[in-house]
Hints:
Thiol Ester Dehydrase, Chain A, 3 helices, globular, alpha+beta, homotetramer
Amino acid sequence: MAREVVYTVNVEFGDCDPAKIVWFPNFFRWIDAASRNFFVQCGVPTWTETEATRGIIGTPLVDTKAKFIAVATYGDTLYIHTSIPEWRTKSFVQRYRVTKDGDTIMECEEVRIFAGKREGGGIRALPIPEDIRALCD
Amino acid sequence: MAREVVYTVNVEFGDCDPAKIVWFPNFFRWIDAASRNFFVQCGVPTWTETEATRGIIGTPLVDTKAKFIAVATYGDTLYIHTSIPEWRTKSFVQRYRVTKDGDTIMECEEVRIFAGKREGGGIRALPIPEDIRALCD
Amino acid sequence: MAREVVYTVNVEFGDCDPAKIVWFPNFFRWIDAASRNFFVQCGVPTWTETEATRGIIGTPLVDTKAKFIAVATYGDTLYIHTSIPEWRTKSFVQRYRVTKDGDTIMECEEVRIFAGKREGGGIRALPIPEDIRALCD
Amino acid sequence: MAREVVYTVNVEFGDCDPAKIVWFPNFFRWIDAASRNFFVQCGVPTWTETEATRGIIGTPLVDTKAKFIAVATYGDTLYIHTSIPEWRTKSFVQRYRVTKDGDTIMECEEVRIFAGKREGGGIRALPIPEDIRALCD
């Protein structure tokens, strides 16, 4: 079974919109932090370090789908259960389940790549680094 | 064919991350603004007004999927082509195509609802308001 | 001496700009959360509750000044030391000192009010609620 | 008299908080964009370009003070009147006046520097580039 790492979020006043619920782009902010935190907890160095040593500048998103099941508001504590259920040749699937008081309120599944800089600007997908994969499995 | 409204975004320095490309949650910020702008351009009043007159507090997201095709950076101008290709009983599909220099760099398709407040907190889906639908078609 | 509450921030990749340092508006995001957290730690209820029971919708900002002393980047942990050194008739001063590895990297001093809704839209300053002040001193 | 450049902001739903007014850190987001826009309108190239050609990575903030005079909400259009009233040896003052319907609702005055990278991480203040100053005066 894939390793799971939990990232904790305290929902703040400013994360909520005039309807008094979390403004949804903030979920993606937290999911991106949970994605990064997953690698940190698995022992992967910062992207600043990997950029210098091997040209990996980060793990940008290629594709995402998300389902919003119940709302959250400020004062709530959310837990983002994060895993990588699937590795492909040049991409991987990262999965998130956000819970509040034990209930799942949001689910998200992404495809991400390990990116390097492309000559002339922009980024390109690098092959999955086997040592990083080994740390995360 | 469904009506299309275009929302323009000037990408700013602070919208970009250390990899010098747009940090993806910002795309969802803009898409939410494009969603709202669509209704404004169709003549739908503010949610503050609709809340007072008929209990509609907004159109929160139920479901979203997005594909990131090419990157953008600060200085770029993006155009978000927005439409509602499908109306259901208590929800609707809103679609976005983000272009830069004529190329599609991101696509997104959402399911949203018209929401009212639920007794005791939270929100609930209201039936699609026929007059608002008529304005948007 | 005024009570001090510490709010902890883990700086994320997306909080940083193309110069690889925290994009400064994020400091104000965190400071607003630290402001709110100060009241929570002192036992003040949520603004949703105070709005229902006594018309206080929050503590909006009137005035702020801040000094940026050193930069932070993702992976850093910041501590926001928060206090209310001064109470006035219809406003109060809230002070923040942000530290990283024991060094002060940012300082901020704000004037805030307890706000209620004004007839016809907008907000107005309410007299300092003595019971809330007593909780915070 | 110092040159003035106006930056326009359309306030969106997601820019507002549960009190239905603009969440103040968003003002700093817009002010940072207005700061950058000022240089763009004056003909200064992107920081990506200046970093490559002369080591200038941007104009980070050293010091800011702001006054919030009246609130704004979604649907409002704001105009940020931006100028550089003062140049110092290694820093400059940038001033902002935000108007809505002809009234000033926020004022801000910053000290910024032209920054280069420092050996071993972090940034350092560069002398004011005279050619950039000439473009902005």
